[in-house]
Predict the 3D structure of the following.
Amino acid sequence: MLAALRRRTQAWMRPRAPEPLPAQMTRNRIYVLPTASGLFFGLLLGTMLLGALNFNNNPALLLALLLAGAVQASLIAAHLQLSGLRVNAIAAEPVAAGEELRLRIALDAVDARVRRGLRIAHAGNCTHARVDAHGATIELRLPTTRRGLLPLPRLQLSTVQPLGLARAWAYVWPAQALLVYPAPETQAPPLPVPIGGQGHPQVTRAGEDPHHLRGYRPGDAPRSVAWKASARHDNLLVRDYEQQRSGELLLDWQHTSGLPHEQRIRRLARWVDDAERDGRRYALQLPAHPLIATGQGEQHRHRCLRALALLPGEAGHG
Amino acid sequence: MADTPSPAMTPATRTQVRLAAAACLLPLLLQLPATLGIGFGIGALAVTAAAWRNPLPSVLRLLLGVCALLAVAAVAPGIGRDTACAVLAAMLALKPVETFSLRDGRSLVGFGLFAPFATFLLDQGPLSLVLALLAVLLALLALQRLAAEEGEIMAAADHPHWLAAKGVLRLVALGLPLALSAFWLFPRLPTPLWGLPGRSIATPGLSDTMTPGGMADLLLDDSPAARVQFFGAVPAPEQMYWRGPVLWDFDGSSWRQARGLQALPAAPMRPAGPGWEYRIDLEPTEDRQLIALDLPTRLPDGAHLSIDYTTTTDAPQYNVSRWRMHSAPAAAFEPELPQQLRQRALALPQGYNPRTLALGRQWRRAAGHDAEGRADAAIAARALGMIHDSFAYTLNVPLASRNEIDDFLFDRRQGYCEHFSSAFVVLMRAAGIPARVVTGYAGAYRNPIGGYWLVRRSDAHAWAELWLPKRGWVRFDPTAAVAPERVYDTIADRQPGRIGGFDGLVSVFNASDWLRRGWNDFVLGFNAQRQQDLLKPLGLGALGASALVVLFAAIAALALGWMAWWIARGERQRDPLLRAWHALDARYRTLGRGRAQHETALAWAARVAADRPSAGRHLAELGQRFSEARYASSLSRERLRDLLRDLRQHRP
C-alpha cells in the first residue's frame, strides 16, 4: 500500500509529462521535505520546546526557538539552492545496449549564486555538482537494456544543503530520446566474403611476419597492436592489413537469414564493428531501407549502427 | 535505504563534530558539582583522544559507561534535576568514542544540543547563555559540514571556514524574526503540566530552619538574591529588613518555623505611616519562600501571608519572579498575644544552657514586673548593652557544643547574626519575655544605574522580635549593637566590585548588574502574566490562549511570507524589460495564445493578430519596439521607460 501511495505521489509531482529543454526550476516544481536526520532533529526540538514551555524556562525556550528558526531558514535556503537553476541541454554519445549511457547535462542559473552539493540522480545512479555563474556540465550514467531510441527518464535534481536536515528536490523530464545501438554479438562468425573477391586468396588474419607490421600511428585501434612483436622492439607495432583493403564488403540482411530477428541485428552490428576495426570498406543492406553505400570511418559506422538501432522490432516487421 | 551503512566522516569533519559536542558539554559541566564536572571533562578528553581514529572495544565502552553512572551515583545520589543532567553529561562525554559515520555525527550533534538546554534548568546566568549560544553556532556549523560532506563538496577548496561561518550566521539571522515573535507571542502555560524535579543537592539559601553557625557560606556569597524598585518613598537603610521565615521553636541546637501556625490568618497590624510601594524581582530560590520588606501590608495574587507575616508563594520559584507589594512599619503588631502563642514564644528546651536561663531569671528578678512592659524593655536594653560592650563580630566560629548559647554568651563572645539573635531570644525567653527569631536579609545596595536596590545573598541576616505589652512584636537586632556596618551596608568595603581602596570596578559592576536585571526583566521573568501585560499597550487586553495562537500564527505567517519573498526574489528575472515581456506573455498564455518557444516576437504578434486584429496590431508594435530594445542599438532612457510602461499596461 505504501508503494502504491508512493507511486501516486510520484505521479502527482511536476513535471507530469516530458517537457522541452531548457527547463527552469521554479517554486511550483520544487519540493522540500525533511530528511531522516531532519525528522530526528525536529523531534529533539519539539521535546525542547515542550520542556521549556512547561518549566517556563525562557533561555531554554529562546535557544530552542533560535534553533527552530535557523532550521526553518535552512529549508528555505535548500529551496533557494534549486530555484532559478536551469537545465539547458542533455546529450550523450550513443553506446551499445547493455552499456551505460553517459549523459552530459548542461546546467546554469538565472543568477550568479553559487549552488553547492547539487545531486542529479536517476534510479541508483547519482552524481554531484556545483553550479556557479558560468554554469556547469555534469555527467550521469544511465543504464541501457535494449537498442533503439531511449526516451529520457524523469531525473531528480536534489540537494540537502545547507544543514542536511531537509531535502529539496525537483524533477526534470526532458522530451528527448537518446539513441542506443544494438549490442554486437559476442561469438560471431568471421566477416562474409568481399564483393568480387573471388580471385583474391583469403588472407589469414594472423601475421607475425615483420612485413605485415608497421609503426603505431595515433588512431590505431588497440586491438590491432601486435603486442608480442612490439615487445621485441622499442616502439609499438601494428598489424598492417593493407592487402585486405582491396575487398569491399557488403553486409547484407540476407547473410544472416535463419537467425532470430534481434540476433540478426546483433550479428550485423558485430560485423560493422569488425569491418571498421579491420579497416575494410563496407556497405549495409537492410530490409525496407535504402542501401547504405560503401564507406568507412567513424561517420559511416554511426550511420550504419543508427540504421540498425532504428530497425523496427520483429512484431513491426511482420 | 535506511539499511545502507552511513559513510564514514573524514577526519576533519570528525574533529569539527567533536568540537561542537565539546562546546555543548562545557556549559553543563560548569554547572555540575565540581568533582563530576572536572572528572567528566577530563574523562571526555581522554576517551576521545583514545578513540580518535578507531572506536574503542564495546566491552571497554560498557565499562566506561558503568563507571560514569557510578560516579554520578556517588557524588549526586538521589533522583533530581542535577542527577539527570549529570547522567546526560556522562553519556555525551562518552559518545564520541563510537561516532564515526555521518549519521553518528548528526545524532551526536543533535543529542549534544540537549546539554545547553539542560544547563538552563540548572542555571540561567549570562555565562551559561553565552556558552550555549556558542555551542549552538558550532553545532550548526558541524551540521553544515556534515551536509557538505554528504553532498561531496570538497570542503577546503570549495567551502572555506569563513564562508561556512557566514552561511550559518545568515541562517540564524534569517530565522531570528520567527524565533523572536514566537518567543514573545507563543502561548505560555500559566501552570506547568508537570513539575520540575528539584535538585538533589540543595543550594544554600534562606531555609525554614536555622542552626547557629550554618549561615556562614551564605554570608560569603555575593550573588544577588533580589532586586527591588521603589515607587515613591524609599525607606532609610536601617529600616531595610527583608522579612523571611520566622522561627519559633528551639530544640537546643536548631530553630524551626512553627508548623501548626502557618495556616492561621495574619495577625492584626496597625501601620505607622503610609509605608512604601515597591516591586521585588526575586532570583530563583527553588522553594516557596518569598521575602518582603518589614512588614508587608499588601501582597499580589499567588503570595500568602501567615500569622507571623512570613510570606510564601503558591509554587516553587524555579525562575526569576516578580512581586509587587506594599509594606509599612508597625505602630502595633499583634497587640493582644493569644495565650497559646505566648506559651510558644516562651518555650525553651529542658536541660540546655543552664547559665543563660539563670541569667535571664536573675535579670527578671532585678527588673520586676509591670503591666506597661517597662521592665521588659529594660531587660532587652540591658541585654543589648551587654552585647554591645563585650561582644565581637566574626564569621570564624568554632563548631557548636551542646550548650552552645552558654558558650557564646559567657566564654566565646564572638559570632555573627545567627549567634547573636539566637542567644538574645533564648535569654529573653528565660527572662519571661515572648521572643522569636526572624530570618531574612538586611540592607541593600543601591545601583545608581537604573536606581534600584540590590539585595545580595551575603545580606542574609537573623534578628529578633520581642512581644511587648501594647506595642506587640518589636524588632530588636542584637547584631546591630555590635556591628551595624555588617547590617546596614554603611561602609565602603561592602560596596560590590570594590577591591581594597580601589573602586574602579564599581561602575563596571553597576553596569553589568543593570544589564543582568534587564535580561531578567525581558527574558527570564517573562511568563503568561507578563505576556498579557505586553499586549495591553496594543489594545489587546486579556487575550485567551486561542486568540494568542491566532495572533502568533498571523505573525509567524508574516515572518514566513518574508522568507518566501526572499525565494521569489531569487527567481526573479533581473532585467525589468524581460520581466515585463514575460509578464505580457503570461497574460496571453492564460488565453491559450502564449508565445511558443521558437517564435520570434513579431511572428507571435502576427499569429495573435490573425485571431484578434485589435490586440494584435498593438502587440506587433510592442514586439517591434521590444526587439529593437533587445537587439538593436541601446534605447534612450525615456523611450525605454515608455516601452516598459506600455508593456505593463497592455492587456490582451
